[in-house]
């Protein structure tokens, strides 16, 4: 997104880039239905729901997050 003006792309549409979204099963800050709506505006977005709350990097599902992130990055290398 570096170099793009704030107006580009529209705030409701995400760029056509590979995006990994990770959501905690017990997240009360970002409701899962809203996160799912985000994936509809990004054709290459992947959404995974992991154990834990809003802070998925340090919560109970942190190992799932780490493993899923590595798999996602490896898939980019294979593409």
From TrEMBL:
Residues 16-74 form the Peptidase S33 tripeptidyl aminopeptidase-like C-terminal domain. InterPro entries: AB_hydrolase_fold, Pept_S33_TAP-like_C. It comes from the Bacteria. This is Peptidase S33 tripeptidyl aminopeptidase-like C-terminal domain-containing protein. It comes from Frankia alni (strain DSM 45986 / CECT 9034 / ACN14a). The lineage of its organism: Bacteria, Bacillati, Actinomycetota, Actinomycetes, Frankiales.
